[in-house]
Amino acid sequence: MEKPLSIALLGLALISFAGAPSPKSRVPSPGPLVSTFSIVARDPVNGDLGVAVQSKFPNVRVAVPYAKAGVGAVATQSFSNSEFGTKGLDLLALGATPQEVVTIIGREDKDLEDRQVGIVDAKGRVATHTGKMNIPAAGGQSGAGYVVQANLMEKPTVWGAMARGFESARGDLADRMLAALDAAQGEGGDIRGVQSAAILVVRGTASGRPWADKQFDLRVEDHAEPLKELRRLVGVQRAYNHMSAGDDCVAAKDWTCAEREYGAAEGMQPANAEMAFWHGVALASNGKLDEARPLFRRAFTADGRWRELVKRLPSVDQLPKDPALMEQILATK
Description:
Elements: H1 7-17, H2 23-26, E1 33-34, E2 36-42, E3 49-55, E4 65-68, E5 72-79, H3 83-94, H4 98-107, E6 115-121, E7 126-130, E8 139-143, E9 146-150, H5 158-168, H6 173-186, E10 196-202, E11 214-220, H7 226-251, H8 255-268, H9 273-285, H10 289-302, H11 305-312, H12 323-330
Antiparallel strand pairs: 1-5, 2-3, 2-9, 3-10, 4-5, 5-6, 6-7, 8-9, 10-11
Helix pairs in contact: 1-3, 1-4, 3-4, 5-6, 7-8, 8-9, 9-10
């Protein structure tokens, strides 16, 4: 069995990350007071890692969630300390357990009792910390591969509701974490109300392309119903994830694959003219012009400039160099 690094060795590693500054300069001062509720979790099926959060604080994405594919995920809130996110992920990558991360960074944090932190690593190990100076109701709890935490809540049943919501939900990690946030809000949520929300989900295994490892990185900066808006954005992003997969298929000249992926995207967002257009391109390139025409019609009706784009595609091998096919597509009304 792989053993985690010792606390002493990890402490030395932390000093090296910080450039060995003086102890005084390494003590973080209180960050923004992000009173909020969050869930940090790992998907037991595919290993995806993520954080979802709602707050009465603008643009909570900038302060609370951190995640790295194949390493772990962190939520740092109340008086947020970014070191739990940045150095915390570095320590997890070295082999620290989530609890060791809290211990090591917390040892140098004179404001630890003002902090609230949740951590999960790529193995599903977890830790949650709520300092005694968090504004009540404040607390957290852990479960199999997840932690929930909340502060400045209307009542102390919020984090328990989050845990039940997550455990009972179906779907992928994003769906289940959103269910936890809904459960928290349904239990009363922040005593001051709502303002912003965010979700960050990365793959369980790093691909070496960090930009491609993010499944979701979405924020609602200021909204009367941030959770409702965040769900809408997740739906849009799901469709664009299929669009990106379709682009990869086109690059490989696999038009059957492109048809499948663009079709999935178009089915999720039928009012999106771009998704209809590229689904039509894939079908036409795959010899299915009759099926493609209604999609081209939808795009051309939304904006006549899609017709001009059709003319430009054969030169870059994104439509067959077939004048008759081009004429038929452009004749679509």
